[in-house]
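input
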Amino acid sequence: MSASQTNLQSILKNLQIDKLNEIQLATIEAAKINKDILLISPTGTGKTLAYLLPIVLGFSKDVKSVKAIILVPTRELALQIESVARKMKSNYNICCCYGGHSVRIEKNSLSQSPDLIVATPGRMADHISRGNININFVETVVLDEFDKSLEMGFDEEMEYIMGQLKNVRKKYLTSATETETLPAFVNLKSPIKLKYQAESIGEKLLSLRQVKSEDKDKLNTLYDLLCNLNNDTCLVFCNHRDAVERLSEFLKSKKIIHDYFHGGLEQPDREKTLAKLRNGSIQILIATDLAARGLDIPEIKYIIHFQFALTEEAFIHRNGRTARMKSAGTAILLMNNFETLPVYIRENPELMELSKLPPPEEPEWETLFVGKGKKDKVNKIDLVGFLSKKGELGKDDIGLIEVKDRFSYVAIKRSKIKGLIKSVATEKIKGNKAKIEIAS
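output
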């Protein structure tokens, strides 16, 4: 077995992956050829690992410099890629740069010449223009979710960045949909195109249904629908922020535990919401199309189109949050008597009849906010020890733990969390007082 094969097996073990999928294997093989790569496949099919593996396995330890840059449209996707890269435990340094993060911390990290940078275009362009980063040795660039970056208006920033990178030898461009023409600044050189249709990845496991509403505003029908979904995870899509918040206020009045997500939220609130979804503290999320792509969230059982997607592309991306890989899922169109099916839906979906059922049960978990994190030398083991000893919790009372730079989120059994907060109100973590409260 070669050294690269040994490293690959070690990385897969760290990621707890038994074997690579078709997309990942094809990308690794294509990366051996001295050509750029255009990777087109639906959201949730493993594109991140597909390009990370050949990049990291191809790193040289001889030169301490920035070797690869990954540009992504959203902060959430940047953090997700950083998380995957760190779980690989490849002994290479990673830096993540995005708006809303401390520029000072990023500048300090960049001065250490990390091997890999994951960044949003605006923040990366800013660091380059300020001279905060040596880009002379960057040989690989990834434009991830490129179509989304263009849609969000990052073409000027990406053009500037690509113009500054003079020694790039290989480019990866990934997209969930195929773009007819690419901007000149991308300058792909006879790329190898790897295209995987949704049908070959898992869309055949997606069921499409419709629910009729007698009410124009559809709110009460949405409530009835949620009561019919067996407490499974559910993502409700709207087209605008005000609609998201209006639905949230309605569900709050019905005492339905949920949260909402859109681009108007501050970054800490967005991270908190996603943490609650990942750890099972919420099972219903109301969102704009920002949640359709590039987020590190678990498999969603039901997608509800409260408002129809404005384009077929957006519709596909929304549905990409369910029926991923080998899992089945359902997308539901919620329609009043004034609405007709969008032209991009070519078949009449099966009608779903609703029964009068009790509201969804409260989730088993609730999220605890702890005001200490990595920068305070606090890790998961410290938190488990603190909660077990000071909070008198059993191991089954503690769920998923996420440790950030300055704070942490811990899933706690809902029945235990209020008593826990009283028990640890005056206690210290590693000798220091910490803010501990329910992450509402």
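quick obs: The two ends are 51 Å apart (CA to CA).
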